[in-house]
Specification:
Helix 3 packs parallel to helix 4 and helix 4 runs parallel beside helix 5. The protein has 8 helices and 9 strands. It is an alpha/beta fold and 256 residues long. The longest helix has 30 residues. It starts with 8 loop residues before the first strand and ends in a 6-residue tail after the last strand. It is globular and about 60 Å long. It has one domain: Rossmann fold (3-Layer(aba) Sandwich), CATH 3.40.50.720. A 7-stranded parallel sheet has the order 3-2-1-4-7-8-9, with helices on both faces. Strands 5-6 form a two-stranded antiparallel ribbon.
Length: 256
């Protein structure tokens, strides 16, 4: 297999499982070294193992990406351990879905709480901001030849039913990514959004079979995406050095 990313150091948040782990292993197979960031040390150990099996090196970094001091310390450690940071993949995210207000018999019986709204925005938006800020700073100071930030958004930035918090966070991430492309271009640092559609993750596999079948029928390609499809798109963004400030959607034709 081509080692087109040899000597590249890629930091990935939410790297312990699912899409984050898949991106780590795919890039490692092409020679990238991986700084795997997550809260779960056991899952990080699994990612480090798989990266090693793919023929490259990974180091695990336990970090709460909503904690400013923790993010600063983590990225300082990554830069010290690897000597540079070439790419950041802002992949970490959470769901806590619910209606803005729920009505029964003309009465509001439930509301989305401010704490649930805040928690999702803290991880999906603030966490991405903090990681991008620190990643970009180290790219400027250490690299001399730029870098790339890949922000995983999903199609929720258009607004999904029951996802006031998540859709707001992902729309904000799209806007921030475009700002970063404009601000950081002078340093040859690129910033892109990658928006996956329905992908075979543990969350999707936990859906009732009839619901999953109904979703699959909505996809023009009539199949659910694989994690490998998302990893391939990340690799393409890293490799194509004229991509910045825009959105790559990997969704089989289903816009959600």
């Amino acid at each position: 297999m081509s080692k087109k990313f040899s000597n590249k150091v890629v930091a990935i948040t939410g790297a312990g499982r699912g899409i984050g782990q898949g991106i780590a292993v795919h890039l490692a197979a092409h020679g990238a070294q991986v700084a795997a960031i997550d809260l779960d040390l056991d899952s990080l150990a699994d990612t480090v193992k798989h990266v090693g099996e793919a023929g490259s090196l990974a180091r695990a970094y336990r970090c709460d990406i909503t904690d400013e001091a923790a993010v600063e310390a983590t990225f300082a450690s990554i830069a010290e351990d690897f000597g540079r940071i070439d790419c950041l993949v802002n992949n970490a995210g959470i769901f806590q879905d619910g209606l803005l207000v729920k009505e029964k018999d003309g009465k509001v019986v439930k509301k989305m709480s401010a704490s649930v709204f805040d928690k999702v925005l803290d991880v999906c938006l603030k966490g991405a901001f903090l990681c991008a800020r620190e990643g970009a700073g180290h790219m400027i100071e250490r690299n001399g030849d730029g870098g790339v930030i890949v922000n995983i958004s999903s199609g929720a930035f258009r607004g999904n039913y029951g996802q006031t918090n998540y859709s707001a966070a992902k729309a904000g991430l799209v806007a921030m990514s475009r700002v970063w492309a404009k601000e950081l271009g002078r340093y040859n640092i690129r910033s892109m959004i990658l928006a996956p559609g329905a992908v075979e993750t543990d969350l999707l596999r936990s859906m009732p079979a009839d619901a999953l079948d109904a979703m699959t029928r909505q996809v023009p390609l009539r199949r659910i995406g694989r994690i490998e499809n998302i990893a391939q798109a990340v690799a393409h963004i890293i490799e194509n050095d004229y991509l910045t400030g825009s959105i790559v959607e990997v969704n089989g034709g289903m816009v959600v």
